Amino acid sequence: MPEQALRDRVAVVAGATRGAGRGIARMLGAAGATVYCTGRSVRGRPATPGRPETIEETAALVTAEGGRGIAVRTDHTVESEVEQVFARVRAEAGRLDVLVNDIWGGDALTEWGRPFWELTIAQGQQMLERAVHSHIITSRHGAPLMIERNAGLIVEVTDGDTFGYRGNLFYDLAKNSVIRLAYAMAADLRAHGVTALAVTPGFLRSEAVLDTFGVTEANWRDAIEKDPYFAESETPCLVGRAVAALAADANVGAKSGGLFSTWALANEYGLTDVDGRRPDWGTFFPRKVREIVDGDEPTEMNLFIVRTRLYQAEFDPAAAEEVERLRIWLARHGSRI
Fold it and tell me: Are residues 263 and 303 in the same domain?
């Protein structure tokens, strides 16, 4: 991608406070874009308990990367606040080239390890409001600025590049729903020259994940001893570079409606992470699962990992042999699939 390839382009990154949203905002800035960084956490009023990041910090990082960062406090579940964001973009910039929907807010609401009949309905409903309905509201009011110019890119950020079950009913609904949103929006936008697609990172080394493992970006490899899967983790900037490459691609319309991973986009566009690596979660994870099955050690963690891979692969006709092998292994070790 040419240096400053997105100069004079305008982006809104909804959910830019931390994680993938912050990484995407930063890398759009590194490509020269003006980036409106939206979210609920502002200086002196953090919205997520235990997390110090703010949208002002993200906007400053965008500017430091070479773009122009603008922080706008927004609750994307409140339609009037979303309308105000795009009214401001229209008044100040007169255009919108990229809209990224990375609004989440579901970590504290996800009840892992519980079947759907034991889940708290109110928590699940709140998750869907935050992580799906907010995306609909945001695209509803952002898309008209793109349609006016017959150009633009809408990116839905999800988790996983398959349609397999993600281990919790409401989490699964949220992450699969935004993939479907990209597909549905692409259909409506096709006649207007606007592209909509979904993107997933791999094992994301977000601020919260680093804290959970007790490491920093400087010494993140120390966590591999605790979790070998951390070896193939990636910073939020890799998905940011992937989104920037998509935004700069004159032929991005050919991808409209699709679902793309950071590892596939990194290979396609020749991208590396900020540490110079090119993590490939899509190759790494299945290989680790094969090692588990070959080693035949049915620990609780290994059962979980194999079951996760089964969910990923079972809708892929090309993976029929792998699926059968995983089912046999799980059945042999008394796991109900």
Answer: no
Backbone angles phi, psi at 232, to 5 degrees: -105, 20
Tokens of residue 100, six digits: 């990224």
216 and 141 in one domain? yes
| Overall pTM surpassing 0.90 (yes/no) | yes
The DSSP bridge partners found for residue 234 are: 204
Q: What are residue 314's phi and psi, to 5 degrees?
A: -70, -15
- pLDDT computed for residue 337 by the predictor: 64
| Domain boundaries, position 66 | 10-279
| 19, 206 contact by CB (below 8 A) | yes
Mean pLDDT of 244-248: 98
Assess contact for 235 and 19: CB atoms under 8 A: no
Active-site residues: which are they?
A: 171
For residue 58, the SS3 value is: helix
- Please tell me the distance from the alpha carbon of residue 160 to that of residue 166, in angstroms, as a whole number: 8
Residue 71: count of CB within 10 angstroms of its CB = 22
Residues present in the chain in total: 337
